[in-house]
Amino acid sequence: MKRIAASVGLVALGVSTLQTAQGSDAQASKPWSVSLSLRGFYDDNINGTKRDKDDSFGIEVSPSLGFGIARDQTSVDVGYTYSGKYYETRPGGSSDHWDHTHIFVAGLDHRFSPRHSIGVKDSFVIGQEPDVLRVLNAPTATFQRVDGDNIRNFGGVVYNTEVTELLGFEIGYDNVYFNYDDDGEGFDGFGNVVPSNSGLLDRMEHRIHIDSRWHFRPETIGIVGYQFVQNNYTGDELIAGNIFTGTVESDDRDNRTHAVYVGAEHTFNPRLAGALRVGGQYADYYGGSSNDDDLTPYVQASIRYAYAEESSVMLGVQHLLSATDLVGSASDYVHDARSTTVYGSLVHRIMPKLYGTLIGSYQHSTYNGGGPGIDDESDDFFQVGVDFSYRFTPQISAHAGYNYDKLSGGADVREDFNRNRVYVGVTAKY
Q: Cβ distance 272 to 265 under 8 Å?
């Protein structure tokens, strides 16, 4: 209790210092912004394990920079956020008490004419937590903190053109790259492969989609589309099996998928809008010795509602094939997982200066392959976070929050765990 009180004291000192350093009015029209967050936290399961759990108090320091300009036809935004977390108890596998996270984002939108536009975006992350490494709202491949400077980069470009008043097209390409710090497979005393994170999860994902967009009404757009995905595992390591009887390599899990879907985007009123895409997805697992295939539903849906001033709710669901850190046996290894993810957020202005935020996600993953105890078994992963923010001024706010993670593992090799995190802190912006 003394240690968390000390953390709160440090946060309070940061508030007074930052308030003195800044003026009372922000330059709302300036193209750049800076912010600094200081937090004290407690994490009751820093490694995400079921037995012999390690807990820790800690301090987080997070500065960020942003720059954005908007012109008649072109807008550009770039940003960088650093997070340094000091754990009083050193996390498992870590060489020191610090976690360092770096997040770079950039985006460009340009309208060539009223009928032609392009958007480019990129997000580059170095971090340890799975919710930082994954692509926004995409399925999580691993559920626990992963030590090291793990890299994820997501980039994409989308071109929109209106051929007629009725018909338009959207053509896009996305690229996701993962590179985990832990590399080099090992072997136990019987010759069984002990895989590394790089061997299991290093990969390059390419996505190309083309949507025909039918403008039936100003508020309604019908969609008929196709998506191609190429997944290449780049670890170049052994990931399963025994050196005497047979092994599996990273690129044995290479695959490609084809999805065809129909859908719609509809604006019910200025405050309420939704989108839906439903269809089928065919997967060709060509990387291994057997030419397996799979056919699954393809679903993406979301709805947003701004129900009051500075208050809104969002809910989404998707069903996709996704990567996983499970591999199983050499004779029947895991190709991927069929993952259904439900996610949502609520932002509510409780009082003129008090805001509450609730976020949550639920992921149900069923494994494709892996042998007895894994094949067709399922895991359920829950994440819930709540944050209360009190804005003393437009530049200074105080925060208190709680995050809960829970994994219910159906696969024999997966252990359940719970993780609780609480924090208090302050953020200053200029």
A: no
How far CA 298 is from CA of 78, 254, 318, 343, in Å, comes to: 33, 20, 8, 16
Per-residue pLDDT reduced to its tens digit, 136-172: 778 888 988 899 999 999 999 999 999 999 999 999 9
Place of tokens 């060489």: 95
Residues 6+ away with beta carbon under 8 Å from 383: 131, 359, 360, 361, 362, 403, 404, 405
The two three-digit tokens of residue 166, written as one number: 């009725």
CA atoms in the 13 A half-sphere facing the CB of 248: 28
- Residue 16's pLDDT is 32
Q: 149: which residues sit within 8 A by CB, 6+ positions away?
A: 100, 126, 181
Among residues 422, 349, 345, the alpha carbon closest in space to that of 391 is found at: 349
Task: Please name the residues in contact with 84: beta carbons below 8 A apart, sequence gap of 6 or more.
Answer: 60, 61, 62, 98, 99, 100, 101
pTM of the model: 0.89
Exposed, middle or buried, 374 (CB in 10 Å: 0-12/13-18/19+)?
buried
Note the residue count of the chain.
Answer: 430
Set out the domains of the chain in order of their start, with CATH numbers. 2-429 (2.40.160)
Where is 199: in which H helix or E strand?
Answer: helix 197-201
- Give phi and psi for 102, each to the nearest 5: -125, 130
Q: In angstroms, what is the C-alpha Rg of the chain?
A: 23
**Nearest CA among 181, 182, 7 for reference residue 87:** 7
Instruction: Look at the block and give the residue holding tokens 């390409």.
Output: 173
Asked if pLDDT for residue 25 goes beyond 90, the answer is no
pLDDT value, residue 289: 63
Rounded CA-CA distance 83/63 in Å is 7
What the block records as the tokens of 313 is 């709710």
The first and second tokens of residue 209, run together, are 């989609």
Rounded CA-CA distance 139/363 in Å is 7
Q: In whole angstroms, what is the distance from residue 243 CA to residue 199 CA?
A: 16
